[in-house]
Amino acid sequence: MTERRKLPVVLVASRDCGECSACCELEGVDELAKAPLTRCSRQRDGGGCDAYAIRPPACIAFRCLWHHGLLEDDGRPDRLGVMLDGFSLDDQAAGTSKPGILAKEVAPNGFERAESTLRWLVARTGQPILLRRYDGQHFEFNGFGLTPPSVPIVTV
Ligand code: SF4
Ligand code: SF4
């Protein structure tokens, strides 16, 4: 069973969203009744939010893992092709929980654009990455190829 959770890394103050608004489309916002993978009505063309000063708490709180120092400066989601988020793999039977990385495509074929960077990340962390394709399907990337997820996906 999976559940979203942030990885324990530190915010990098110098990293700015700039023209990126990947999370505005990829994430759901309960306060706006906005579903995941739908454009927000407040999104500006070219990036940014039309109601930035009064955006909901969920928008204020959210930072993708690029803001937490994962990857280099050029790994911003709109440039990379995927947005990285944290989640945990919970084995309720065994009572264990393991943090993982979830890559969400920001556009069709985002994975193919980001593949070499994600391969490096798998090697660095020693863990496969969970991938959500732009059409909502999930796969696991072990650094070599895509396979069906080894655990049921419930909340990502
Ligand atoms: S996906 Fe990350 S970099 Fe892009 S707008 Fe959201 S928080 Fe900022
Ligand atoms: S309200 Fe603004 S910050 Fe929140 S999802 Fe919409 S465009 Fe993005």
Describe the structure.
With 156 residues, the chain is of the alpha+beta class. The protein has one domain. The chain is 19% helix and 21% strand. It has helices at 22-26, 57-61, 77-80, 110-125, and strands spanning 2-4, 82-91, 96-105, 129-132, 138-141, 146-147. It has a 6-stranded mixed sheet with strand order 1-2-3-4-5-6. Helix 4 links the parallel strand 3 and strand 4 (129-132). The radius of gyration is 15 Å and the shape is globular. The termini are close together. The relative contact order is 0.18. It binds iron/sulfur cluster (2 copies). The site of one iron/sulfur cluster has 12 residues, from helix 1.
Summarize the structure.
Helix content is about 20%, strand content about 20%.
The H-and-E topology, N to C, reads as EHHHEEHEEE
Shape: globular
Beta-strand share of residues: 15-25%
Low-pLDDT stretches are 1-6
Could you give the order of strands across the largest sheet? 1-2-3-4-5-6
Query: How many β-strand stretches?
Result: 6
